[in-house]
Structure formats: structure tokens, C-alpha cells
Amino acid sequence: MATVSFNQNTIEREWLLVDLEGATLGRVASRVAAVLRGKHKPTFTPNADCGDFVVVINADKVKLSGNKMQDKIYYSHSGYLGGLKEMRAEEMLEKHPERLIEKAVKGMLPRGPLGRQQFKKLYVYTGTEHPHAAQQPKTLDLSK
After folding, report:
1. Are the C-beta atoms of 37 and 118 separated by less than 8 Å?
2. Average pLDDT for the chain
3. Is residue 120 assigned to a domain?
4. Residue 31 sits in which domain range?
5. Over the stretch 117-142, which tens digit does the pLDDT of each residue have?
6. 84-88 and 122-124 strand pairing
7. What CATH number has the domain bearing residue 57?
8. What is the DSSP string of 53-77?
9. Structurally, how many domains does the chain consist of?
């Protein structure tokens, strides 16, 4: 029996829709990262981008467990002296809820060119409307 290795040309990609209303951030992020990598498929190849496209809606309705809304801090640095900025999770959820999901998922993807390529297949929106209706995304069940 021969081992079959899949590449960009032999992979079939799907569009999946994830609704975050009432979902917990970490659990959703790990599931979405696995789908972006393609780990849910029997054709998973670690060194190739064989994952699916993921459209996330209702990003502003995600929950965090415990006291993370007040305690979790996201840092960014401008590169200049004294350029460290910090933002609490509740502030980020108010101002930029998409970034909260994107940062959580990006941290679970591999580092390097492959991870950056896989991350480009993630689309996050705050409301229920999204411009990807033409791709006919299937809903992804998060309970599995």
C-alpha cells in the first residue's frame, strides 16, 4: 500500500460557517484552527495547506470564562521607545471583536509561511451578515 501525499492541486476545499453566539473563545479558536489546518480530513498533510475556508459570524457575542474579561491583557508594541500599549479583553471586545478571535486562532496555528497561508482563509465578522453567501458555506457544528 502506497502512502499518498496531498498538495495544493489535489486538495478539495469547502467553506464553513461558524456562529459564535454564546460560544467560549478558547474552545471555538481551537476547533477553527484545526479546520484551517485540515486536521479534520483524512487527507491531512502536515507540510501542506489542506484546510478549509472558515467564515465566523457574531464575533461580538463570544464569551470568555472566569475573570478573563477583566484580567486578560493584550499587548502590542509600536517599535519605538515607550511604545508598549495594552488593552484588556473587554475593551478589545467592544472596539475590535474580530481581532479577539483572530489573535486566538493565529496563536494556535503553526509559525512561518505555512501558518500565515492558513490564516488567510479565516474571515471574521461582527454581525450575522457576511459577503460569502455565493460560496454557500456549510455550518460547522462546534460540539464535535
Report:
1. yes
2. 94
3. yes
4. 15-64+95-139
5. 999 999 999 999 999 999 999 999 88
6. unpaired
7. 3.90.1180.10
8. EEEEE-GGG-B--TTHHHH-EEEEE
9. 1
